[in-house]
Amino acid sequence: MALGSKEVSKGIAMIEDQISQLVASIKGHQEDLDATAKLFRTPEIMDSFDKWNYDCWRSSVFGDGLIKLRLFIEKNFNFVETVGVISVARYIFELSLWLRLLDLDARYGLVYYEQLIDTQLRYWKDYRSQLNREISLLNQLAEEESSLLNDKIGELSLISDEQKKQQAAISAPKIVAEIIDRKAARQFSIYAEQAKINGYGFQAYLVGKQALPEVEGSIASLEEEKSTFDDTVSEDIRSLIPRRWNWRQMAEKVSLTEEYDFIYTFSSKLLHATPASITTNQKNLDLEEMLVFLKYIDVKIRDLLELGQSRAPVIA
Description:
Blueprint: H1 5-27, H2 30-39, H3 43-47, H4 54-76, H5 82-104, H6 108-155, H7 162-185, H8 192-198, H9 200-232, H10 235-238, H11 247-253, H12 257-271, H13 275-279, H14 287-311
Helix pairs in contact: 1-14, 2-4, 4-5, 4-6, 4-14, 5-12, 5-14, 6-7, 6-9, 8-9
């Protein structure tokens, strides 16, 4: 039997009310998250941090993770929308996986440290590749600018009127600059705006002489740190480090595979430009799905708070 419009409206109103209550509940966790995080971030704990001690890393990850979660709530629940809710749900899942790994075995603190080095190293290497692409692009644009300007100057000999020739000579650099600037704007370039002021060739020089050495220094430092880690870490820790981080495989270790499948199915469907997300008419969570995600977020925050409080250092 089909529901009438009044029953449908009443049902929608009930779900909207539940959503409002859940959002209020989620936002209400901020104070507890902050207070629990501080238990792991006392001056004594911070001052005694030892990067080779997995218990220190466990305290650090619990404290930093709960603070980051509070910030996510603060920034994403003033206005509730699909992308924000799914992003927070996915972040909470991944955070809960790390905290449960650390709860399962404190030695995962050094696995976290290894992953931190690896992630930072990949970032700086990718950044170096981008800077090299930038240098190549900026030099290419400088050459094109010079070539176009020479062509414009060559065309001046075809103008017989001296006044028009003078006007053309004055306007040529501006015309060429506008052409090159438009071309640069269509490229993915960090330094294109600065190059408009400094010149493309000189900007390439600045990137190579200033930005690139800093990145190279960061890479060298991290590679040295990774080498030290590999030479120092014990075999029992090494056995815990996956060859390649896989969220689902790690979820299996702490019985979170069902959560993984649920969260990643929706996030892949709605956050990535897959054929399913492009072609489907559904671009957002419907009310019932939004309710499910908000319940998940609320419950997971409660679970993480409870876990954090159970693992918090005892203060004498």
